[in-house]
Design goal:
The chain has 10 helices and 10 strands. Helix 3 packs across helix 5, helix 3 runs parallel beside helix 6 and helix 5 crosses helix 6. A hairpin with a 2-residue loop joins strand 4 and strand 5. It folds into 2 domains: 157 residues, Rossmann fold (3-Layer(aba) Sandwich), CATH 3.40.50; 83 residues, Rossmann fold, CATH 3.40.50. By secondary structure, the chain is α/β, with parallel strands linked by helices. Helix content is 40%, strand content 24%. Bound molecules: adenosine-5'-diphosphate and magnesium ion (MG).
């Protein structure tokens, strides 16, 4: 077991509001780790700080011992920490494969200016990107739909494409913000199998999720936030039986039949 992400006393203030308050947590490589809690409890803000989208007010974030504080989101994604968004961010006017290719663009060796000046390099780059995108789409089961326009695809497939695109950069850690939101039960099953497959090939997973079916069946370690404060951390059984978690969160929404 190795610590992948170490968060120490992380705090984020928006004016007078403390969205994340003195939060500490370790994500280890042997666990799929979930962050749960009521709406507004600071989950997305936490992912935003880890991925460099937001600057922390104070505290520490370490990736394999190396500080991420002060690094840009580009630098952090180049280190292998890649996130998806709570609201899908795909290009409606592009095809499935083009959307996947966009995800890999920042990671090719040819600089944009150079590639614009050098058609040969640009063609090579595009060929490489296309092959990589085909591979990623094949991995997530979307190869046959590669030439479809994304806006014609069901929401579940769009979310799968977003996941496929995130694989384009060969991530070491995926940060997923509500990957199951809006999915049908069948799509949720597909997502869980896909995430298990991705974890099994050695990609570390940290997800924010509301769907308790996904949280309890997929994840091994769960951290609970309430009003920006960590109130519990345990395995699924421990979390389901934690009176404080039931009071703050699960009581209102968790149904074991779900
Ligand atoms: N950019 C921002 N500016 C001001 N307040 C924000 C911003 N982002 C989030 N917040 C506030 O911080 C709190 C935590 O939000 P968020 O992290 O999105 O919660 P969650 O993802 O757990 O639902 C909320 O009260 C939210 O309104
Ligand atoms: Mg959120």
């Amino acid at each position: 077991m190795a610590v992948i992400l170490e968060i120490n006393h992380l705090t984020k203030k928006f004016g007078g509001l403390t969205a994340v308050n003195d939060f500490s947590m370790n994500v280890t490589d042997d666990n799929i780790h979930a962050l749960i809690g009521p709406n507004g409890s600071g989950k997305t803000t936490t992912i935003n700080m880890i991925s460099g989208v937001l600057e922390a007010t104070s505290g520490e974030i370490l990736y394999k011992g190396q500080s991420l504080i002060g690094k840009s989101s580009d630098e952090i994604s180049r280190m292998g920490i890649v996130r998806t968004f709570q609201n899908i961010k795909l290009f409606d006017s592009l095809s499935v494969i083009e959307n996947a290719m966009v995800g890999g663009h920042a990671f090719t060796n040819v600089k944009m200016t150079e590639s614009l000046l050098n058609f040969k390099k640009r063609a090579e780059e595009e060929k490489m990107l296309r092959e990589k995108a085909e591979e990623a789409l094949n991995y997530v089961g979307l190869y046959d739909l590669r030439n479809e326009n994304v806006k014609n695809m069901p929401y579940g497939k769009q979310k799968m494409l977003e996941l496929g695109r995130s694989l384009m950069s060969d991530p070491k850690v995926l940060l997923l913000d509500e990957p199951a939101a809006g999915l049908t039960p069948t799509e949720r099953m597909e997502l869980m199998h896909m995430l298990e497959k991705i974890f099994a090939k050695g990609v570390n997973l940290f997800l924010v999720e509301h769907n308790m079916d996904v949280v309890m069946n997929l994840c091994h370690q769960i951290t609970v936030l309430s009003f920006g404060v960590k109130i519990a951390e345990n395995d699924p059984t421990g979390i389901q039986n934690d009176p404080e978690v039931i009071k703050a969160y699960l009581g209102e929404r968790y149904n074991k039949r779900a």
